[in-house]
Amino acid sequence: DESTNHQILIVDDESDITQFCKVALERSGFCCDEASDGPAAMKMVLAKRYDLVLLDVNLPGIEGPEICEQLREHLSCSNLKIIMMSGHATSDEMGKMLLKGADDYLSKPISMAQLQAKVNGTLRLKEAQDRADCLNTRLLKVNETVVQAQRSRAGDLIHLRNGLAQALAKVVQHREGE
How many CB atoms are closer than 10 A to CB 43? Predict the structure, then answer.
């Protein structure tokens, strides 16, 4: 099962929600870590490569939307997925969070089926993006090899042309001598 390879960070200051998410996701084979505030979450994400962050909107220290923005601005892993969670945010507020970099959101109280469906769907998107990045990297390498081969062939052709021109010049000199 591929889910055992996925690393998820659950960030919420309510331990019952963190535990619910952790149990539900680990039951599906995901590896989960947890943080209870914004600064701890930022340290953990910078120290370990996560595939997905479940991020509460209202957190002590640094609010969830600010963490989301900071991760999008400063993190090199562009395919990190972020699902925001809130029991108080309106649809418009959640929409604004999507515009600022969140990939999806969950409304509290969270159902197990909704949590697993959103996490699985978001991680399928991440896997597709990771595969596309890998293919793009391979294509760039192949393209560079082709360009180098063309340059080499062009150099060989120039060398051959110059050699042919020199040979023709010698033939002309030889004939003029006769």
Answer: 11
pLDDT, tens only, 137-178: 888 888 888 888 787 777 777 878 888 888 888 888 878 776
Per-residue DSSP letter, 110 = P
Q: What is the pTM of this model?
A: 0.77
User: What's at 95, amino acid-wise?
Assistant: G
Low-confidence stretches of the chain (pLDDT beneath 50): 1-3
How far is the C-alpha of 89 from the C-alpha of 42, rounded, in Å? 22
Q: d(Cα 94, Cα 106) in Å, to the nearest integer?
A: 9
| DSSP string of the chain, one letter each residue | -GGGG-EEEEE-S-HHHHHHHHHHHHHTT-EEEEESSHHHHHHHHHHS--SEEEEESS-SSS-HHHHHHHHHHH-S-TT-EEEEEESS--HHHHHHHHHTT--EEEESSPPHHHHHHHHHHHHHHHHHHHHHHHHHHHHHHHHHHHHHHHHHHHHHHHHHHHHHHHHHHHHHHHHHH-
Cα 102 to Cα 69: distance, rounded to the nearest angstrom? 8
* Beta pairing, strands 31-35 & 81-86: unpaired
Q: What is the pLDDT of residue 1?
A: 45
Cβ neighbours around 45 below 10 Å, total: 24
- 56 three-state secondary structure: strand
